[in-house]
Amino acid sequence: MLPLVLVGLIVTAIVGFIIVVLAISWFSNPPFGLGNAPPQPIAFPHTVHAGSVDQGGVGIQCEFCHRNVTKGEAATVPAVENCLFCHKQINAENQAEDTPVNLAEIQRVVDRFNDNNPIDWERVHRLPDHVRFVHEAHIRFLTQGESRTEILPIGDEQPMQLPLTVGESCSVCHGNVAGMTEVQPQAGQSLKMGTCVDCHKTNNAPTDCTICHK
Fold first, then answer.
1. Residue 138 shares a structural domain with residue 192
2. CA distance 170 to 176
3. Which segments within 56-177 are labelled E, that is strand?
């Protein structure tokens, strides 16, 4: 049998490890940097697609690609056919070699379309499977109604003048995606249950368990 001192050290180490993991999990989102976005199969710089025209972007609205965001639960990601709305014209065949766009990545999109091969985009923002988050309801709250000032317990918690545009509404939780070359979870953003409950209480939204939990 192991000496009691050694057993005590092992138990202490295990308990200490659990406490550290719980502490990191509570104060970060999520622990150990696992929230960093995975690499995407094709580079998609939102700075180019969604960035403002005066900053060199195209200014595409969020809902043009994420077509279900104002209609249903999931925002959805675009099918490769959607990409070809623009990239039938903007591609290696009809762009000069000194064009600022990444022709190699665009060609990969065109090849996927020609091969009838979908783009398997990697999820960046993930909630637990038992949580239901309906994008349409949140977008509707932020984009409709009378003019009002709200301080939401999420993001930078600065006063917001509502109603917002759809794109501005997306930024409340996702950050300034239009300014991201690679989409990452918003720094310091918490998507924990407490944040959601605080926001619902602040805005007199339902807090019944069945509203958000399947």
1. yes
2. 8
3. 148-150, 160-162
